[in-house]
Amino acid sequence: MDKLLLLGDEAIAQSAIDAGISGIYAYPGTPSTEILEFVHNSREAKEKKIHSTWSSNEKTAMESALGMSYAGKRSMVCMKHVGLNVAADAFINAAITGVNGGLIVVAADDPSMHSSQNEQDSRFYGKFAMIPVFEPASQQEAYDMVRSGFELSEKFGIPVLLRITTRLAHSRSGIIRQPSLPQNPIHLPGNPKQFILLPANARRQYKNLLNNQALFEDESERSSFNIYQDGRDKSLGVIACGIAINYLLEDYNDREFPYPLLKIGQYPLPVNLIRKLYNSCDRILVLEEGYPLLEELLRGILDNGKKISGRMDGTLPRDGELNPNLVARAFGLEEKYGLPVPPVVKSRPPSLCKGCPHIYSYNALNEALDKYTKGRVFSDIGCYTLGALEPYGAINTCVDMGASITMAKGAADAGFKPAVAVIGDSTFTNSGITGLLDAVNDQTPITVIILDNATTAMTGGQTSAASGRLEDICMGLGVEKEHIHILNPSPKFHDENMHTIESELLYEGVSVIIPRRECIQTVARRIRDEKKEKQKEIVQE
Ligand SMILES: Cc1ncc(C[n+]2csc(CCOP(=O)(O)OP(=O)(O)O)c2C)c(N)n1
Ligand code: SF4
Asked: Is the pTM of this model over 0.85?
């Protein structure tokens, strides 16, 4: 059997290729980005003609994957946890339509917020949509769960959610591959009304989903990813969800684990296995990465049963990732992992790269706003969010993708003038376009600065859906041509740029300013790649 050393993200991608997907859709976001990138760069995927492109946002990605499934093919859609908020409408309704070809939705959660605005737990979305959820404990399980996920998806005609977290996505381990499956042929859904969610059809589909709940639970009870292991000491029973079991195994790698243990990797929760553990032990400890989903359910509102410990009673911290030391503390064991950080090591906060075009956009904006009171710049999510830090102190908000334009609009509607929105080119296509249309429709006096660095820089330089043609899109939305300006964000154009912004701040309608210069990191990468190509050609000659 073929063995590979892969990141968790790569294991998911390889498994999807091996399981016979025909397409993968995604919008980049840490820690999920490497899944589509792996498929995109895979020779095997190219030979199999597997479709892999970045979508404009997570909702368009989800819908494209659903469309491919409608056509009978297997598809996958990947996003970071907050991306599932963007895709939520399509995601929840896909549980009602069901699927034709197998469909897996991968949501990569980021507990501890290494690279995110929050640490929401996507398992709640799975429960909300009432679909099966897989949560791997290892890279091998991630690989195997994709195969099982497609089987389950096609058996019940239901989308399946695969929830991973940062450590699993970004750590590497050996994977044993399974034999490759062929792709599905194109075939239409057996029920022609399945995807038409008119109320009469939707009610029927929803009843199907409800009727399937017991079957999904039955699958979980019998799943090889949910394992009950007995123990001699019944004073405590332990439930470990997903990756959390690894911390436990590390803490007990030199001794026997004495307590009954239930490892959970497939949801809906295996109620009978949980009841068995609860009935055999004096108290229960729940280890789960993310929110206390299971712990809260076990306690119930009245919390008058056996003692349940975990994140809610302070045995483990309420927020952030788990680790072997936190878990050791929960068992009263010595904390022995990690070394003290020597004083010579200083923490280095992130900052804009030297020469980054965003720096010169902010220098011009700051000067243009100098004569006004502070707090006028509504920003968004990307490298440019680092403009919040000193020495720039250039922005005042960062909430969710697209919120710059709409929050500036709301503030301007309240009479706050001038109000400025700062948004990156990729964020603009993700969720900024509709907000700009609202502003145009209301002739709201806002100045929108779309920072076009020709890439999605913060997540590693993926293509950006509308880079280089933003002015056409803005004109198409109704922004007046004379209030759209392209700037060169470089020191030698500082005065010119500052005056353009200054005069548009006074305009009583929507203006759009597009500072356009490529991210210096992608420029450097391109030059490196071109050099390598040239060297290759010389060697071949
Ligand atoms: C809903 C959502 N999807 C994805 C992300 C991940 N993400 C953060 S910044 C970013 C890229 C922004 O690119 P762009 O707007 O072009 O700005 P740049 O980083 O290039 O300056 C992405 C995809 C996110 N935070 N939220
Ligand atoms: S990666 Fe590019 S956009 Fe991001 S800070 Fe560096 S130069 Fe600027």
From this structure: yes
